[in-house]
From TrEMBL:
EC class: hydrolase
Source organism (scientific name): Streptomyces griseoviridis
Domain Transthyretin/hydroxyisourate hydrolase: 9-129
Known catalytic reactions: 5-hydroxyisourate + H2O = 5-hydroxy-2-oxo-4-ureido-2,5-dihydro-1H-imidazole-5-carboxylate + H(+)
Name of protein: 5-hydroxyisourate hydrolase
Family the UniProt entry places it in: Belongs to the transthyretin family. 5-hydroxyisourate hydrolase subfamily.
Sequence segments annotated as region (Disordered): 31-62
PROSITE patterns linked: TRANSTHYRETIN_1
Its job: Catalyzes the hydrolysis of 5-hydroxyisourate (HIU) to 2-oxo-4-hydroxy-4-carboxy-5-ureidoimidazoline (OHCU).
Pfam name, any one: Transthyretin
NCBIfam families: hdxy_isourate
EC number(s) from the headed UniProt entry: 3.5.2.17
Source domain of life: Bacteria
Subunit structure: Homotetramer.
Amino acid sequence: MSTSTTASVSTHILDTSAGRPAEGVAVQLSARSGRNADWHPLGGSATDADGRCKDLPAPPEGTTHVRLDFAVETYFEKKQADVQQDAPATRDSGAVFFPEVAITFAVSPGEHYHVPLLLNPFGYSVYRGS
């Protein structure tokens, strides 16, 4: 595929509650070619020690929308288990409030989209990075 006729996507996750990258989070990329078109899963990856996915698949030509699905539940369960070895949890039932985060955005051919996810156990935010 020519990069001049397709968009490219990258992402990374920062755990703002810990002040460090979120390692080992599964990320799936899907694309569609039009507002009312069906989503097509393209594949995925997992974040590395720096919280980055460096090998997400390129959306096909004609893609107008991309969705990133972040499976954050496993990350927070592991993190909570590590913390509870030192101190018992005192907040909520231990359930993960946001088990998944799905971010949908519009794309244009030839553009690169870097979409960082700032994450904590009770909230998240995203933005178009550089």
